[in-house]
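User: I'm new to structure prediction. If I give you an amino acid sequence, what do you actually give back? Let's try with this one:
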Amino acid sequence: MPFVPIYNQTGEQTGTMELPPEVFGVAPKAAVLHQVAVAHAANARHPIAHTKHRGDVRGGGKKPWAQKHTGRARHGSIRSPLWVGGGIVFGPRAERNFTQKVNAKVRRLALRMALSDKVASKRLVILDDFTPEGGKTRSARRVLGTAVARADVAKRVPSVLVVLPSERRAVRRSMENLPRVSGIDAAHLNAIDVLQRDVVVATRAAVERAAAQLKQ
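Assistant: Good question. You get back a string of structure tokens that encode the predicted 3D arrangement of the chain. For your 216 residues, that looks like this:
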């Protein structure tokens, strides 16, 4: 079973936490993570490009000229795709739906794999609690800087995901102005947020809540 040290807000180790292997010890599978990542990007896509078919273009109600005896090719509308200013054939339409369905079982499996990868690479830092003094950004920066220093990451300014056990608005506000730092409630934790960040900093209560949800 994986064991992860627990630190206080000053960076001192106060103990260790035994993580359930069925949540934090899952071998990653590229196919599962790829499926969830592609579906997440597709579901967030909002098509903007929109072309008009020949029926959408204004004008063209009258036949340009007679069908016969003019010596010219026959045409029924000046808004035909053959004409300049006419409709577009097979052009992009804004109502196109890019959403992809992913089963809840697969999403939970991908989250387990993402968390297991963070544990294996020593990029999951667990704090006994995260309560910046006075809800100040300066205090939050100091605590997170100390926590990130305990992770095995070589980047000078790594991206950080802070996982909280509940919706703590005061704590979330203290991190809003910190670059490359974002917070999330443990109930809304997902594989994409975990994979996109270099370091995951979570409180002990948040880890316990996430583990209880993912065991189901």
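You can read the tokens as a compact description of the fold. Here is one thing that stands out. The mean pLDDT is 93.
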